[in-house]
Amino acid sequence: MASKSLKQRLEEVTTGSVLDHIKTVVFVYVVLTRLVKVERHLRARGIATTFLEFWTWLNKNLLLFALRCLPAQRKKAEADIAKAKLTIESKLVPQGEAVTRHTSLPAKGHYPEWILNEMGKMDNEIGHAEWKHGKISGAVYHGGDDLTKVIVAAFERYCVSNPLHPDVFPAVRKMEAEIVAMCLRMYNNPTGAGVTTSGGTESIIMSVKTHRDWARATKGITEPEMIVPDTAHAAFDKAAAYFNIKVHTMPVDRATRKVDLNRVSWAINPNTIMLVGSAINFPDGCQDDIVALGKLAQKHHIGMHVDCCLGSFIMPFLEPAGFPVEPFDFRVDGVTAISCDTHKYGFAPKGSSVIMYRNAELRQYQYYVNPSWTGGLYASPSIAGSRPGSIIAGTWAAMQYVGYDGYLKSCREIVGAAKTIAARIKSEFGGKLYVLGNPPASVVAFSSYNPRCSIHEVGDIISHKGWHLNGIVRPDAIHIAVTRLTVPVVDTFIADLHDAVKEAELNPSGKGTMVQLYGLGKVAGALAPSISSQIATAFIDTLYKA
Ligand SMILES: *Cc1c(COP(=O)(O)O)cnc(C)c1O
């Protein structure tokens, strides 16, 4: 066998070293990109939070592991969950043989009279919460019979319509365009663009999708991240979960309840697609510093969504109604999108919201277009294909019926009532209760100074007086979203709150559903998130029990 020539040997050595070089380069590249990721994560979350997140994760997994090895503990946890499931079921699903269940189609169709009669029977048999007395936070925002009649008339006329076929239902197309135009004008962007959606969640999901696709097309971002205040609506996390976007949750200031701008600024990196601010937020009804967030967004050339889902038809009327208000709409530089729920303070039927963009160019990133579908060229603006034209007609009708003067009047009354509640909590419960931040609009959240008087227990006691309020966390508090129906019962609310606080102080039991759900966290320690997730899952399962 001939020995290798010098040339052959030289080739071996160089290919070998080229391979080694490539390996080294790839290795360094991988290490560097990982380091960049770690650095960005640390910048966004801070060292303490990162450590805390890791610690919680470790604890949870150690406990889950321990549970697997400790049958007695596991049985107890399983029994707790089973008990909670039964409680939920007994509350939601009518029990017993007396209840008629319709779980298969009737062999023959019923007469209309039978149907309405059966609905009446259901209401009587399984009961329903009274909402007309106004002891409910949010939920029903107008509730007047006159408006209901107008909406039902619009429903009837456009019952079968579908904006997917604008040639068949041209009036529905026109009404949808006009709803968007009216909202854009209210939010001071008449040259902007928008679409209607099925609700605030869809509006937010669409905005996140739009900014993601915009960032991918214009900046090549393939690992998108977004920066969201702790007080922003869960719909942003939901959107991020659907679209696989990394969320950095930013703390809010304890006193003002506005998102910490320094932290937001630190969290921005080349993968950031958008910032989020609320006007107003759901948990405590406060507003983020939209001007400062807009400035940051502009500086970094990223999107900025203002969530006015709840602020809807209240925020734009604060100024004309004479209430103090900080800038929140498209007049703020850097704001690229605003969501506004027509089905909240717009008094439209449920299933109606608007997502608005600074311009029509940005809106195009929301569309879905499939030019090669076997069913023909397919294009749709939002998540749904077919959509209810009746909801659009009902929304248009509500806006025409209430009008500028009607919304102005309801803003005066509703925000006036909310401010009265906040002022009376401050003056009459001084030293016991405090209001979170300085809420500018229709929602007031309050908590307890006294650790022995649990605010969730107060919420539980006041619920026995017929009130349906919302319990929130970080800090533990209760909120009330004032509606047109709440306005007349402000005095009753304050009186009932006095009684509830007294009762909670006299014999703190640490029990009750509002507390129990959160109390479970205290019992189960680090396991709480996984257990409450299981209970929430059971809750949704229960909704589908016939
Ligand atoms: C209600 C609300 C949403 C979501 O609205 P849905 O209509 O329930 O989907 C989003 N943000 C805020 C601040 C809200 O209050």
Task: Describe, in plain words, how this protein is organized in 3D.
- The chain has about 550 residues and is an alpha/beta fold.
- Among the domains are: about 55 residues, no CATH class; about 260 residues, Aspartate Aminotransferase, domain 2 (3-Layer(aba) Sandwich), CATH 3.40.640.10.
- The protein has 17 helices and 13 strands.
- Helix 8 links the parallel strand 2 and strand 3.
- Helix 7 crosses helix 8, helix 11 crosses helix 13 and helix 16 crosses helix 17.
- The chain is globular, with a radius of gyration of 28 Å.
- The termini are far apart.
- The protein binds pyridoxal-5'-phosphate.
Strand content: 5-15%
- CATH fold type of the domain at 149-403: Aspartate Aminotransferase, domain 2
Fraction of helical residues? 40-55%
Structural class call reads alpha/beta
Which sheet architecture does the biggest sheet show?
7 strands, mixed
Order of helices and strands: HHHHHHEHEHEHEHEHEEHEEHEEHEEHHH
Radius of gyration: 28 Å
Q: Which blocks of ≥5 consecutive residues have pLDDT under 50?
A: 515-527
User: How many individual β-strands?
Assistant: 13
CATH level-two architecture of the domain at 149-403: 3-Layer(aba) Sandwich
Please write the CATH class name of the domain at 149-403: Alpha Beta
Tell me the strand order in the biggest sheet. Answer: 1-7-6-5-4-2-3
Q: How far do the termini sit from each other? A: 85 Å
- The number of helices is 17
Query: What integer is the average pLDDT?
Result: 90
Tertiary shape: globular
Ligand inventory: pyridoxal-5'-phosphate
- Give the CATH H-level superfamily of the domain at 149-403: Type I PLP-dependent aspartate aminotransferase-like (Major domain)
